[in-house]
Amino acid sequence: MIYGVLPGPGIFPGVTRVFEDMRDLFGLKIIYPHEYNQLAEDDLAIFGAYHQAYAMPIRRLKCKKFLLWTSPLLQMEFSEEPVIFNQVLNMKDRGIIDQIWFGDVGMWKAYEDKGFFMPYPLNVKRLQPYYDPLPPEDREGIALFCPWTPRKNILTQLAAVKLVQKEHPEAVLYGNGMNTYAPLAERMGVSFVDCGWMKKDALYYQMIQKVRVGLQVFLSESFCFTAFDHMVLGTPVVASACVDWLPDSLKVKNLDDPVEISDRIIKVGSEYSHIDAYRQSVLDMAQVRNKRASEAFKCHLGERSGLQS
Is the pTM of this model over 0.85? Predict the structure, then answer.
């Protein structure tokens, strides 16, 4: 049996979604630290990222142990993650964990002797019940849904939204938990609504389908789930190259240029005739990626996996 281990509910939401999609697509079972007694020696435990809650169990458990590392190289520069990752490498060298599953191909290329790369699967079915997009004429505004932290290139995107609003005053910005950026946006003259922290539920998906454009022009991004949700639900996204599977016509090249970002927002928001083709390209990408993910997992687990096809 394959288990995905999480430190607790609500911790590591991106990793939680990876495991939920693997549960729904491949039959993974999600457990928390108080459920370690379920693990037998012939099981596999995949620890979701690294957390202090794993410190003792990851050393004592007799089963096979993988650790999922999600952060790209650039993202690690904005935190204390280099120190944490060095601890993970030490655990691999000492045999405490058997493999590191790298979710980012750049990280894997840098440390390919420590583990393997596998793309995150993408469960389209989880979004199908919410697919009810508004027609373009009934949409308004721009969504910037993300953790509002420096690596998300927030100030440049706010400046871009300000330029958009000069031409289109109705293009209100919707954010989710803007924190210290809210007063900066206000002083910049950006018209915005801070929706606060949003659970990924029906209301959240309705908001995505209400706006005209999503904004994801980040310096770094581990999962790209928000961009995926927008595209599958029929809302185009303007993003940086870290969302590598998006069509080039939706990407900006200069992340620090609010003029380029604003021009792309206006262009994408005015050309809704392409959205069906964009959406289909993302659905096709997800199908190919899920096949690659299944094949990679079976390769690295052998008959142990028991993954559903």
Answer: yes
